[in-house]
Amino acid sequence: MKQLTAGEMAKLFNISKYKIRHYIDKGILEPKRNKENKYYVFEESDIYRLYQVSTLREIGFSIKEIQESLALDNIKSMFEEAEVKVQREINKLLATQKIINKIVDSQRKYELNKVIFVEREERCFKKLMEQIIEGDSIDYSKAIEQELVHLDEPYFILSEKQSAIVCLKSTKECSDYVFPAGTYACKSFVVENKIDIENQISDFLSDSIINVRDSEIKEFIIYENIYCSLAYNDKMVYSIEMKL
Question: Does Transcription show up as a keyword for this record (predicted)?
Answer without folding.
Answer: yes
